[in-house]
Design goal:
The protein has 263 residues and is mainly alpha-helical. It contains eleven helices and no strands.
């Protein structure tokens, strides 16, 4: 279903004053709202909707106005909602005739609307409106050099720091540091350590915790062996002791920590 577009009919209210009666009509946002061809945007952006049954979408001027304000002032979706609720110029720019004390849209509606419009239509909308804003003085070219990206639901490349992963990582760092400074180790445990970590993860995923704990114990033993080997090799060498000091301290801390341990 297509949006039910708003039309300013000049309606008055005995208990409320219209926004155009109490605001400064020379404000940059008021001038920009008058300069934008909202009818054209309604026709252009309305192409993504069909005439089927369903709940009518939010008005195009409201959603397009929010998209323009978001880009002009580098706001996140949450910041845009807060600013719209307290700024009457924002509300008038989006087509409101009276001041609204509650949001007339949901924050998630912004994301759904952007996905429905697509990148090409949004870019055309923003380029045209921001060019008009620059001409009228509502925005400066410098305002468009920075972008605020809301990454609330964006996937992060962060792995959960389990004990097994931490011990494997600590051992790998010590081995790498030893190789860099010419400290020859008795054994690096590179291959067996990798397989022990894989087995631990598989057993833990299958809820076979006794087997998983055995592999965790193997990883702890390997880390302890590397720590002791390096400590023996660098004993009496202040230069190497300073180089390995922090890494050995962190490795010992990882090796000695236990589940549900505090502090």
């Amino acid at each position: 279903m297509r949006p039910k577009e708003r039309r300013d009919g000049g309606q008055t209210d005995l208990l409320r004053a219209r926004l155009d009666q109490i605001l400064n009509m020379d404000h940059a946002l008021v001038k920009l709202a008058a300069a934008i061809d909202w009818r054209f945007l309604e026709e252009r952006l309305g192409e993504v909707y069909d005439d089927g049954p369903g709940r009518p979408p939010l008005p195009t001027r409201l959603m397009a106005g929010l998209a323009i304000l978001k880009s002009m002032h580098n706001l996140s979706d949450e910041g845009l909602c807060e600013r719209w609720l307290e700024n009457p110029y924002y509300q008038m720019f989006c087509g409101e005739e009276f001041f609204q004390h509650r949001l007339v849209f949901d924050r998630t509606s912004l994301t759904r609307w952007r996905l429905r419009m697509g990148e090409e239509r949004l870019m055309a909308l923003l380029q045209e409106s921001l060019a008009a804003a620059t001409r009228l003085g509502a925005a400066k070219p410098a305002d468009f050099r920075a972008v605020i990206v809301d990454t609330t639901v964006q996937e992060k490349a962060i792995t959960f720091p389990t004990d097994a992963k931490l011990m494997q990582r600590a051992r790998e760092r010590l081995v790498k540091l030893a190789k860099k400074h010419g400290v020859v180790l008795r054994q690096s445990y590179a291959r067996v350590g990798k397989f022990a970590l894989i087995k631990h993860q598989r057993y833990a995923h299958a809820k076979q915790f006794k087997r998983a704990n055995r592999q965790l114990k193997r990883l702890r033993t390997m880390l302890g062996a590397v720590i002791r080997d390096i400590a023996r090799k660098i004993a009496g060498q202040p230069g190497l002791m300073q180089v390995f000091g922090l890494s050995l301290s962190l490795a010992r801390r990882v090796r000695d920590q236990r589940q549900r341990e505090r502090g």
